[in-house]
């Protein structure tokens, strides 16, 4: 099995995200860590599959703080929010006039079902000039109004005729190396031409 290596440009933050800054308790579900949460009270269907639940102390911050500190002035193409019940806290406390990711994907289904929940955060995005584009059975896909040309890409479900390409880090590294070698050859040719000229 190949092990993924973080890119030098990646920023990994050891924080939970909610609507406040400070310490909090994070509830770790031993049998299904993907459902671990800042919320102690969880739906029965999640509790049945959670295994042992242990409390750990974590630092919490807001999405506003993260973007301001690490992506200020940068164009955010894609934002995924999957926070096991803290969607309202995050979306309702974020300044969507200031922060305008093109596409926001947020988990929106009832636990372990394909039933879409209706929550206050959806109305907040709608009021913030985002348009609901697609529900894939687990997530809502929202597109900001100024990028409404992207809506057509959500008109049909993902399918084989999308002509997608799987990301392969080795192939991308080779492409980058070839591009860098090509650039180096062009620079070298210019330098040689200057020396001869």
Describe the structure.
The protein has 197 residues and is of the alpha/beta class. Helices cover 29% and strands 21% of the residues. It has a 4-stranded mixed beta sheet with strand order 4-5-7-6, with helices on one face. Strands 1-3-2 form a 3-stranded mixed beta sheet. 11% of the residues are buried.
Number of domains: 2
> Which stretches of 5+ consecutive residues score pLDDT under 50?
none
Assign a percent range to the helix content. Answer: 25-40%
> What integer is the average pLDDT?
91
Largest sheet: 4 strands, mixed
Cα radius of gyration in angstroms? 22 Å
Order of helices and strands: EEHEHEHEHEEH
Total number of helices: 5
Strand order of the largest sheet: 4-5-7-6
Tell me which oligomeric state these chains represent: single chain
Structural class: alpha/beta
Number of strands: 7
């Amino acid at each position: 099995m190949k092990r993924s290596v973080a890119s030098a440009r990646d920023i990994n933050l050891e924080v939970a995200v909610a609507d406040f800054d400070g310490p909090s308790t994070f509830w770790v579900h031993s049998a299904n860590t993907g459902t671990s949460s800042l919320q102690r009270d969880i739906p029965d269907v999640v509790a049945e599959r959670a295994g042992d639940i242990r409390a750990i102390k974590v630092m919490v911050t807001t999405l506003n703080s993260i973007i301001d500190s690490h992506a200020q002035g940068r164009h955010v193409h894609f934002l995924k929010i999957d926070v096991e019940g803290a969607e309202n806290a995050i979306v309702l406390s974020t300044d969507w006039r200031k922060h305008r990711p093109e596409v926001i994907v947020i988990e929106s289904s009832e636990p372990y079902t394909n039933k879409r929940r209706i929550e206050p955060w959806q109305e907040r995005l709608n009021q913030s000039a985002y348009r609901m584009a697609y529900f894939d059975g687990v997530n809502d896909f929202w597109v900001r109004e100024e990028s409404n040309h992207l809506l057509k890409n959500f008109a049909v479900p993902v399918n084989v005729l999308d002509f997608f390409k799987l990301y392969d880090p080795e192939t991308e590294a080779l492409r980058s190396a070839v591009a860098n070698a090509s650039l180096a050859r062009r620079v070298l040719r210019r330098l040689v031409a200057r020396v001869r000229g």
